[in-house]
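Researcher: Next sequence.
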Amino acid sequence: MSKLIILFPGDPLTPTGGYVYNRKIAAGLVSLGRDVSMQALDASFPSPTPSALLGARELLAAIPHGQLTVLDGLALGGRDLEANNIPILWVFLPVFSVAASVT
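Model: Next structure:
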């Protein structure tokens, strides 16, 4: 099974709901045998600084073509990251439901 990359802004050990959720999703996928890599974007997302946006573009450019990548909703301020032609699973977490779309 191929690796899944989860991108999120800031420190993965932040003790708030979204980061706890990301860690639980990753741990659950690992327990099912999936190879998961969690990679941090700059903490300035969802309103990235120019240098943070450049760093995110460089990180995405290093991801192999066809690599499935999940981008945390807080990184949506960098939506133009799609220009790197990397398949990103955009995950939106409304209050009472979860919807996902593949771009």
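Model: The helical segments are 17-31, 50-61. The longest strand covers residues 4-9.
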